[in-house]
Protein: Helix-turn-helix domain-containing protein
Organism: Carnobacterium maltaromaticum
Amino acid sequence: MELDSLLSTSTLREITLIKLLNQRYPNWISKEEISSQLYISNRTLKSTVIVINSFFKEKNYEQYIETDAALGYKLSASTNAISNLIYLERLKSSTSFNLLLSIYNKKFISSKHFTDYYFISLTSFYKDVRTINLILDKFGIQFNSREGTLSGESSQIRYFFCKFFWFSYGMSEWPFQQVDEGETMEMSKKIGAQINPYLSPIQTRQLAFALSVCLNDLNTKKFIEPTFKTLESDNLLYQEIQATIHQKYYFFKQNILKHEVNFIYSFIVSNPIFIQTEKMFSFIKTSFQEKDSANFAYSNQLLTELVNNSSHLMTVNFLDKQNFLAHILCLNFQMDTFHDTHKYIEDLQLDELKQLNPDLFNGYLLIFSAIEKQGIYPIYPIETRSYRLKAYFFFLFSLSDSAVEINQISIQVLSDKSIYRKILKNELIKNIPYTIDFTDNNDQNNGPDIVVTDTPTFFNQLDIPIFHISFPPTSNEWLELNSLVEQEIQKKRTLQNFRPFN
């Protein structure tokens, strides 16, 4: 990743060695093999091991690198957190990274102030500026050291900080406000026993974030202690979860516009981990329905703000349209039929949404009714190919006022031939150009693909006169940004490829 350029060669060597030993755990790796892979001498390897073990001892970690003259090296215990913690600790000592951090926190005053604070020369400062500008240049932005500002598209600036400080950095100390225990503590006890003990460290890390958001709790320590008792045996993972929640809360609560906080919920409901964790969804669903609870008020507020600010072309807006509305309103992850979805929406009594944009609210109900008549039922939307006709309709419908141009839609239908015939005869796609693709039909539960080749016509044929759907093209920068965000989505959907620090 680009932030590697902020670290020294020796630090990168330490991280690479830890990752290598962790991958091969519990096997020994010979000195010759490690030296060959790291392109270092045996003497350098020995000194690197000494530095790493000293770091573990200083941090009171139980893990260490075992040494054997004949067998080589191996880790005493395997954990994904070790290399990440070394990475983060070393970043904290990098003046280039601290320069980025001061810009991120809007605390950069002047070059003189920065050099005095970190005891570096002006030459070293400008070297750091050149280093971070090499990173920023890939996003089309630059740091002006005289003015202390970033120049470039605001969406690109936000995307950079989101990618590198939200996903990659979680060990800084942030000033959090204190909250009363009250309902927050009670809810944390309720869900403490619902954590799946078989989740991987990465899954647990993300689940910790999801739970903290649902509780709307800024006091991380009070939240973690009753909730993660089962994780105390893994001290490194415990520290990583705590640091993750600290950092993510600061990012969303302090550094993003208020209405964009709904990206948190987008992340939760779009992640396969949480889709597979039914107890977690059950808790979220129950808390939303408790009209007097803080969770219901918070989610209702987010939904209202999302609709009210849907015209903002921010990085998270694309994700909101794709995930937040499609999963929170439509509830693909939990509802078996659209009848349940109707009832759920009625139970929520989203008066604010109805008052703010009744056309939007009624439009959702209309499209629910139109698709419900087809007898199409949703399944868990873990992968794109798992979406049924209903999911595709709503997914694309929720994107109707965003700046995304869609040229064709691939719609999968159930293998039931009677339902298939109903779809073809239905007014929804009457007189609309489409083709039928029989070539990719490996899944016995899926019928052929219907490919609609005229998207605007397709949506304008929907019996929803209050909507005039179009897909206007936007600037190349925005389209490129959508592409970048989509890449991040796909990375998270594939768990085996998701590595927060890679």
Residues 235-254 form the longest helix (20 residues). The chain has three domains: 2-88, 94-152, 256-497. The CA atoms of residues 303 and 353 lie 8 Å apart.
